[in-house]
Write a structure and sequence with these properties.
Largest sheet: 5 strands, mixed
CATH class of the largest domain: Alpha Beta
Strand order of the largest sheet: 2-1-3-10-6
Distance between the termini: 81 Å
CATH architecture of the largest domain: 3-Layer(aba) Sandwich
Number of domains: 2
Radius of gyration: 24 Å
CATH topology of the largest domain: D-Maltodextrin-Binding Protein, domain 2
Helix content: 40-55%
Structural class: alpha+beta
Strand content: 5-15%
CATH superfamily of the largest domain: Periplasmic binding protein-like II
Number of helices: 18
Number of strands: 10
Length: 437
């Protein structure tokens, strides 16, 4: 009897020593962009306020992240508790019931403060399925000193003709300065994000109203020919390997007179810690051809919870923290207001502290507001999305086309061959998926 009593007392002592709140570990998949790296550095603030939650990061390059996360969701792998996903995936995955609706972000979260264009892009039937960490469009970033030296003035709303002419005039290869840096790395969210937005401004579209691919159109030929010729004459060597991060590094090092890319880059190129040309950068809207569409996209990187997660409550706590107004204030206190994640909240663009130090705030907001996912092109289309078509098949199709266009840029194929291959591969996939016969 004494032995039984002793054993029971021992077991009770062991139970008493177990913490009442067992620690929850959140595994978060994210992209290796600057704002996400900064978020990881600030995670200690979250875990200090939530000692029962720890965080494990899986940080991946953009194309790899998309592949890993999509595979995990499709196979119900359950590797991640919080996902970093884009505006492309949110409506598709929400309709497949792959995401948990974010109904419990807290009374002070203020969903109504999210910019309408961004909020709509991550909602389905009025329900939020992902919380935007930062939002973006695209615009022209340019070297004011080089423009001045060349006697050029950048218009607020430049045309492609102006950009092409200026890029050639500003190229000084002997001095290692290139007139323009543009994405060339293959990927539906890399070179095809830029090229699709450019194509929109030239009157091109991915599909007509009957889902027939349109790469055999004169508008696509004009887009791709202009891009390849411009990059050959005024772009850096090896451009077919350059994505967002590579071009950011080139611009920061003073190698690019102009760069057309994500508005989110503005805080990095104007940060003297990162950029050699921080005090010599101007901003303008993405270019147009006079057809009524600028070459600006609409995107947000968002935090979402996969359906079936066993850690929804902890995941929602983290997402609410990372995408809140308080998080913006935290970044401002550590890094200054100019480095706060942009493009998600109306209040940020009404904040005098931000406007005072962010010369890029006005063109960023204007670029986001003018990008229309519901009417992205000059001619009518059956799809939603500015720099992508929001159908499940686009991820594979867009990457295939991106490889063909990257090959045209590197010179391993011609523009005509790349367009012909893009037309054939896209037709094949659309037939296989049942969109066309």
């Amino acid at each position: 009897m004494r032995n039984v009593l002793g054993a029971l007392l021992g077991a009770a002592a062991l139970l008493a020593s177990v913490p009442s709140n067992a620690e929850t570990t959140l595994t978060i998949a994210t992209v290796n962009n600057g704002d996400m790296i900064r978020m990881q550095g600030l995670t200690g603030e979250f875990t200090a306020a939530n000692p029962d939650i720890s965080v494990k990061w899986v940080t991946l390059e953009e194309n790899v992240l998309r592949q890993r996360v999509t595979t995990d969701m499709a196979t119900k792998g359950g590797q991640f508790d919080v996902l970093t996903i884009g505006t492309y995936e949110v409506p598709i995955w929400a309709k497949k019931n792959w995401l948990v609706p974010l109904d419990h972000l807290g009374a002070d979260y203020d969903v109504g403060d999210l910019l309408p264009r961004i909020r709509d892009a991550v909602s389905v039937d009025g329900k939020l399925y992902a919380a935007p960490f930062y939002g973006e469009s695209s615009m022209v970033m340019y070297r004011t000193d080089l423009f001045q030296k060349a006697g050029l003035t950048m218009p607020e709303k430049p045309t492609w003709d102006f950009i092409i002419d200026a890029a050639k005039k500003l190229t000084d290869k002997s001095d290692g300065v290139f007139g323009i840096c543009l994405r060339g790395k293959a990927g539906w969210g890399e070179n095809m994000a830029f090229l699709t937005a450019m194509a929109n401004s030239y009157g091109a579209r991915w599909f007509d109203e009957k889902w027939e691919p349109q790469f055999n159109s004169p508008e696509w030929k004009k887009t791709l020919s202009t891009y390849v010729d411009l990059m050959k004459q005024a772009g850096p060597p090896g451009a077919s390997s350059n994505g967002f991060n590579e071009n950011l590094a080139l611009f920061d090092a003073g190698k690019c007179a102009m760069w057309i890319d994500a508005t989110v880059a503005a805080s990095f190129v104007t940060n003297p810690k990162d950029s050699r040309v921080a005090d010599k950068v101007g901003f303008a809207l993405a270019p147009n051809t006079g057809l009524g569409k600028n070459a600006n996209w609409l995107w947000a990187w968002n935090l979402a919870i996969p359906a079936g997660s066993k850690k929804v409550e902890a995941a929602e706590k983290f997402i609410a923290w990372a995408t809140s107004k308080d998080y913006s204030r935290l970044v401002a206190s550590k890094e200054g207001w100019a480095n706060v994640p942009p493009g998600t909240r109306t209040s940020l663009y009404q904040n005098p502290d931000y406007l005072k130090v962010a010369p890029f705030a006005k063109p960023t907001l204007e670029s986001i507001d003018t990008a229309d996912p519901n009417k992205p092109t000059v001619k009518p289309v059956p799809y939603v999305g500015v720099q992508y078509a929001a159908i499940p098949e686009f991820q594979g199709i867009g990457t295939q086309v991106g490889q063909q266009f990257s090959a045209a840029l590197s010179g391993s194929t011609t523009v005509e061959q790349a367009l012909s291959a893009a037309q054939a591969s896209t037709e094949r996939e659309m037939k296989r998926a049942g969109y066309i016969k």
